[in-house]
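Structure, all two chains, one model.
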Amino acid sequence: MPPPNADLATTWAYLEEGVDHIMTKLQTGVSYSKYMSLYTVSYNYCTSSKMHGTGEGGAVGHRTGANLMGSDLYNNLIKYFVNHLKTLRTASDPLQDEALLRYYAQEWDRYTTGANYINRLFTYLNRHWVKRERDEGRKGVYPVYTLALVQWKSNFFLHVQSKHSKLAGAILRLIERQRNGETIDQGLVKKVVDSFVSLGLDESDINKVSYEVYREHLETPFLDATEKYYQQESKAFLSENSVADYLKKAEERLREEEDRVERYMNTNTRKALIQKCEHVLIREHAELMWESFQGLLDYDKDEDLQRMYALLSRIPEGLEPLRKKFEEHVKRAGLAAVAKLVGEGGAAAEVDPKAYVDALLEVHQKNSETVTRSFRGEAGFVASLDKACREFVNRNAATGTSTTKSPELLAKHADALLRKNNKMAEEGDLEGALNKVMILFKYIDDKDVFQSFYTTKLSKRLIHGVSASDEAEASMISKLKEACGFEYTNKLQRMFTDMSLSKDLTDNFKERMQQNHDDMDITFSIMVLGTNFWPLNPPTHDFIIPQDILPTYTRFSQYYQQKHSGRKLTWLWNYSKNELRTNYLNQKYILMTSSWQMAVLLQYNNNDTLSLDELVTATAISKDILKQVLAVLVKAKILINEEADQYDLNPGFKSKKIRINLNMPIKAEQKAESTDVLKNVDEDRKYVIQATIVRIMKARKTMKNQALIQEVIQQISQRFTPKIPDIKKAIDHLLEKEYIERVEGTRDTFAYVA
Amino acid sequence: MAVSAKDARKYLTKYKRLDLAVDAYYNNPPTPAPQASTSKLNALFDKYKDGDDITIDGTIKLCEDLDVNPEDVVLLAVAYELKSPSMGQWSRKGWVDGWKALGVDTIDGMKTTLQKLREQLATDTDYFRHVYNYTFEFSRPPGQRSLGLDMAQGFWQILIPHGLQGGALAHVPSAAQDEDGDDSMDGSGGPEEGWKDDYTQWWSEFLEKNGTKGVSKDVWQMFFEFVRTIDSKFEKYDAEAAWPSTIDDFVEYAKNRVEGNA
């Protein structure tokens, strides 16, 4: 060991031997005392006060004065590293590919381990001389470990790379072999790749990692190679395989690449790599995928659809064409389903509500499942489905151009479900069937039309007592309420209230009558229904109340007046029904009749034969209606019509049934129902549009025509889709009534008239 | 120097810009209306009146003296000037103030003035609009919001041809209303044609066929705008604009008729 004040040559000779030992044969070990003495020598040299100048200066400039010792040692270290790396260079020159990588990795390990020790050996140098040089802003001076890396990079790494990127090329070739399906030594690749990262050096702050070397020498060529590889592969693959197979392939490749980053590339590469792959594997073939989408839909290729969705969702513009195509597809399916149905029944035949609803639901359900299963319920596809359904639910082969047909059929279907003895909803699944009605209801444009038909049908169910259950009725109403709000179902709920009040009323009336009269030979029950809540019209003609029921009629009228003075009762004979017992035949029959039939039949208590005119006089029913009433009775063989306009009681009437229902709706009434409902809807709409305009104008004071129309549409579209000419007519009307006026000097601005 | 609102409007309409109008006013002030005598006008009024106002009989006599047919369009302008409260009726105040503003107090002077009013009604769009709108107001039966169809038809038959022939209703191509107002030519060559005399008759027939009984103020007023702006083939009509729906329907009707005739 040289003395503390030994000169540079002596000192370095001693140190160099130790450094070389550590760098080249560390595996043979270095004793502690040896290490300590090396440390001491380097320390001594750095702290010795006298000058040791070599006189020639070194690679690093030499300063005089009371500077810290160190530049000589530092320069000698550089020289050592350069020499050492020169031998590695020579040894590596003939090596290629994997052999080169192995050599490189092995030397890298040895070198970095050694450099670590050397770094500690020269701790004092690092702490003082190096630090001071760096503090003073000198470039190119590093702590010893960093110095070793810098030397490795410039004297070995760059040298190897300079030969057609021999090192990176070797890595890329290995990766390509792996992509081709071979097994490679991933640990080896990782080691070399890591060295690329370690060689990055941020000049301004050596503690920071710089990916510059990695990026330049490895990442960029890697990405380029990846692009080229997959471009070729996907093109070749698609020329021999189906798109469905390609989807699988692409999915697999993307997973592999994710994995690759994980295994041996730097994580910073992930984003760029995946983007690159998505571009080459997906975007460049998106057109083709979009084209084959329809085929997958047509054959219900759920898994392939799923895959296509997953892949295309990775590029921003990937899904929109699918959503469009899907919308078209659903619409076509819906229209075709209805067209088929209409075709089956012949063009003129009325579509069966249940078949119609089932056909629509089937298309909806099937495609809704596709959305959930294959498109993960993504909002865009849900919107496409909804849009398509709205389209075909409202306009199809069964509706023609009418937007009221669908709500009518749906309401009729709901009516059928809610009636007693319906065979459609299997036991217990009435609730499910009603929920399905609601699915279609959501798509109905003219919700007000549905409301009108539903109200009419409900009133019939209640009046005739054919509702299946109060529970189901209530459930349906609460569903409608949830969908459209309180206002929508207000009337419906009032109808139920009237029904239960009527029951009490009937009971109370009976009780009272039993107390006061003993001649109540008639069973009587009454429904008192609020005019504004029930879609019922009084009879269109007069009616002479038969003597037999007149006392009951009078008593009830009085009773009711007493109870609610001021209320006006309108008797809806046209909705009433009666049961008559026959006494003129051997067998006693019970005839279930309408009021008109009852009035006619009661005439035969005193006559056996009557002319049409006599019957008109006796009942005050108009001739056309009376003829239809009589026709039913004749057909049932209760009456005989042998001479023109002459009706005789049939004394030989016979029937297998004891209870005979004669109360069939007459044709004119049935037909009138639909037109009535629609007429009411039209009237309501006029009113709704006007009220909406007034409300908007009141809030806004002045408004341009276009904006006003848009606002009206927007506010009303929840109930129905108002037509622009109807809105304009409402505006005309309000102008005329001076609720609004045109702003002076403008042609298209309206103002609210307070 | 006080400028009457009427003069101000006259100059502004003519010169469009305020500064030009002011210059013109001072360089070339309006010839002050010759002072008309209130007493002479009162005397004339008394000659025709029947009770407080001049009524139908007086009007007919007046027309005779003025050498004018009681159905002459100019009488609508006179009604506007004299603020006639209703058809064939003239109040003393309207009579005196109106003729004074026009600067005449003799039958001969009135005859000349009628010529001037007839001319102005034919050529001046704004003046035409005022008279046109006033016609609806004063001829409408008291307490009613609309004018009977036959009355309206009668007025249109005298007003519209008069305005067309003199230029007050000259066609305003729809493109010219755009703010940038260029590219109104569509290659068909020549300027776009507008309302034709026949169309007034079509309009009448359409309303009858439609079962229209009364014409609302809005339809009345918008019809004036419609006549000025519609092209002769009814092609540039915008049914989504704020036209009354009666006019929408008429355009449908007229289009069919144009095609049928072509």
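The domain at 576-664 of chain A is CATH 3.30.230.130 (Ribosomal Protein S5; domain 2).
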